[in-house]
Amino acid sequence: MTSAAGPGRRSARERLLETADRLFYYEGIHAVGIDRILEESGVAKGSLYYNFSGKDDLVREFLLRQHDRWVTAIDARAAQESDPHARILAVFEALGEIFADPGYAGCVFHHTGVVQPGSTEELGIRKFRAWLHELFTVPVQQGGYRNPERLVNQLVQLYDGANLAAQSGAGPSAAEDARATAEVLLAASA
To answer: Would 3 be classed as within a structural domain?
Structure first.
């Protein structure tokens, strides 16, 4: 059994989450087994089940944490802009900052892999995708753009493409290119 967290010592829960964050993000949810997480975190199996009901619960927490990180980074940048047009472009500027991080290995919601309907992964992806559509829907509606539903779908596709391009080696320039394309889309829809 692991010892309780004391001053300077991370709790078993924190160590499990940090290890799961790293392994799931860089190697994939399905590629990493619970035994590896236990081994690398230095946490006993009993502590895992004290903190989580199993791997699905740990995956759920991982996806929530990833969701919160992306939302925080993007919303913080977009919130700096009051104009709907500028707010939409700020999303792509935030992506450029995310892509420039040396630890960036793609959006976990894009590279989770094939998921079973109703699985923890599918629910996490659905939540993220709902947020992503809302991220663009609000400023598109406030900006009074023509064909708002189509424009939102185009901006989401641009976002997705930028993520995949950055993950494939384009880096921050993928966000710059997506931002430039968003400018053209916004001008055409004004």
So the answer is: no
- Structurally, how many domains does the chain consist of? 2
Q: What is the pTM of this model?
A: 0.86
* DSSP line for the chain: -PPPP-TT---HHHHHHHHHHHHHHHH-TTT--HHHHHHHHT--HHHHHHH-SSHHHHHHHHHHHHHHHHHHHHHHHHTT--SHHHHHHHHHHHHHHHHHSTT----TTTSS-S--TTSHHHHHHHHHHHHHHHHHHHHHHHHT-SSHHHHHHHHHHHHHHHHHHIIIIITTHHHHHHHHHHHHHHHHH-
Specify whether 101 is located in the same domain as 130: yes
Tokens of 124: 């996490």
Q: Which long-range contacts (CB under 8 A, 24 or more apart) does 144-152 make?
A: 145/186, 145/189, 145/190, 146/189, 146/190, 147/189, 151/185, 151/186, 151/189
User: Each residue of 93-152: pLDDT tens digit?
Assistant: 999 999 999 999 999 888 766 678 888 889 999 999 999 999 999 999 999 999 999 999
Same domain, 110 and 68: yes
25 half-sphere exposure, CB direction, 13 A CA radius: 20
Domain extent at residue 166? 63-189
